[in-house]
Predict the structure.
Amino acid sequence: MAEACAGVQVAPDETLVQRACRGDSAAREELFRRHFDVAYRVAYRLLGQEQDALDAVQDGFLKGVTHLHEFDGRSTFRTWLLRIVTNASLDSGRKRRRRPTIPLGDSRTDGIEPEVTEDPGLGLHRADLRRRIDQALARLSPETRQTFVLFAEAEFSYKEIAECQGLPIGTVMSRLHYARQKLQSFLEGIDEPA
Amino acid sequence: MNRPEPNPLPLPSRCREVRDTLGRAPGRLDAEFRSDHLAECPSCAEAVEATHRLALAWNAARPTPPVGSFDATWSQVLARVEAGEGIVSNVLPLPRRPHRALAVTALVLSQAAAVLIGWMALRPIDTTSQAAPLLAMLDDAPKVIDIEPSEVLILRFDREGSLDRRDIDALEISDTETVGFDTPVLAYFEARGGS
């Protein structure tokens, strides 16, 4: 198993997809494992809660596994999977409205070391910073938040975002501009003494 | 005569280039921009600085999944796949008793039709009587006809004159709604959802 995993780690996603579709369960697991972190980050940024994000990733991965044979290679596997996870997150968010604020002492911050960020001038611990980002994101509309998260976290291109959200590229650009302005204004006082 | 001062503002096209790069890929703002343009353009320098600060905060606050969460998630996914979840998500839900119920319904309806046809051929014609309860005259007819939700049952009332409410009431139909009359002899019923 270890050798098999070591062997598939260097394979490109497309090769793993082919092997997974032929019934190679190790390839399938590796395929989803290598995109788990980014899928979680996207879901977390959209939902703002650890458990909600994990549930959305699980739903998205379930759909990805059961529809893997429908992946046609028009996009990368990563893009395809993140679109599915994004949709699962939006479904989840519609069912459980996104919490606008994260209470102090929330369990999701328990495992996070209060390490100082790369820029000591920011003067904020990572958990505080994340809370600020969460709060800022929560102030965006769901559609604008999705656009920004797809760009900044999933690293989608304008074109990929436009296809994912069914928007003209110009709308994607204006939404990103608006989101940046809002987030920047919310974070303006970030380097003031905490 | 005073000569006009050279315009201190940078070329708008250069600003647009910076903003466009900032928007698409802030990391690609290379030294050329910094030395060539940003030093001369406070507006662009401010925009770059704000973008840089946002990117820094965004990356520093990047969430990480709990340790072991992939394995837990994956085992749940496999269990749900094993249970058949997620495979027919785009297909309409199947009726609860699909094949057997349809077969039984078809058989019952065909028997009812046969009885009706036989009765029509042999019945005495009485033009003076009022509408009589139909099932009372059909001793051999099935008393219960089960139809699935959304199925339409068509009944032919072979009698003189038009149908009226008493004909329908006599059938003691429940959980259906009358969806139409094709006067004088046909009535359509559709089962409501659930059975």
